[in-house]
Amino acid sequence: MKKIAFKTLGCRLNQYETDALASRFHTGSYEIVDYSEEADIYVINTCTVTNQSDQKSRQTINQARKINKEAVVVVTGCMANNYKQSLLETDNISYVVDNERKTSIYSIIESHFRGDAADPEGFDKDLFSYEAAYKTFHTRSMIKIQDGCDNFCTFCIIPKVRGRATSRPAEEIYQNIQEVLDYGFKEVVLTGVNIGRYEDKTINFEQLVENILNIPGDFRLRISSIEPDGFSDRFFELFTHPKLTPHLHLCLQSGSESVLLKMRRMYTAKQFGNMAMRLKSLYPDFNLTTDIIVGFPGETEEEFEQTVTMAKELAFSHIHTFKYSVRSGTRAERMPEQIPEKVKNYRSETIRLISEENKRNYIRQMIGKTQRLLVERIGTDGFARGYGENYIPIRLKAKNIQKNQFVDVVITGLHEGKEPSAIAEIIQL
Known about the structure:
This protein has 429 residues and is of the alpha/beta class. The chain is built from 13 helices and 20 strands.
């Protein structure tokens, strides 16, 4: 039995695809081992959204060769699309597989060990033929519903490395979800590049979510990162359904109208604010998290302060902060007034501190309230950890509790660790 190790960098879409690949190799009688262990095959699912992502991807590729010089090293993901030729010329990489052929990695490896031709270019392009993942690295099961993007924001390379927006047939999605529920998963996370633009014949994103919520079973549904493209009343109403978690990762990027315009975002800061406030007025404990880019070309102190104000006022409980990174081939690459790294570092740290304080305040706000905890792991310290429906990180004294179990708890306090989390107690029936 050959050993295979996986490493995923970047988004939840990459995580979904790695989980599906790992399941396929497990079915094919490969032993899945940790990436730090010696393996016969290493698969690196890369990210290229920033220069830092590129650096991490290259370090991860080099790590594989240091562990086992004779191993087969497969590089896939967005970096494989963005730097394909240079990666092909690298001695320590066996195969470079673009996103469109990622589903073929199992067949490529099988061909390799049979001694047959294993040129990735000889395999068909297919974005959606991943098997339902039962052997995953997560308690939650991610479901890919869409790929690619048509927005062409001035800073973003995703349309180049993921292609134009394409939606997965709805019936395949329902089938995929039913399969993972049958495997025992209790939380389903919808993922893609721009999932709000989902469209399959007469079914749009809102209808798709509604149909999924009507699938029988004791599970909950979470919407992953989504663009604030202007939702209908029906979208807001969906959150009354008990299976849909009251949490959204709604991508802001900047609180400045002028910066959003230069970014070529499809909304204004005012529209974003109105969406956020409406969700919080309808559902007072609704949890909003977001992405923010600091140091976009020409961003002034005043424009940055507008982002700071919005981050505080909308009280995002987590902010994924990106320092603007020049991506070759984007419009922003040609913009004047590139911001010095020192300024970007300062602004990034400012947003990070706001994010931490927002998280603490949100958890404090939830003290005395109930959550349905999905246990993700049991630590050696005797505490169970996981997330409530509002995406609150929760720690609970583990007693007669198992992984992948729903537990009704009440939030009793704030735990100050490396990352703030909630302390909870089981509700005694």
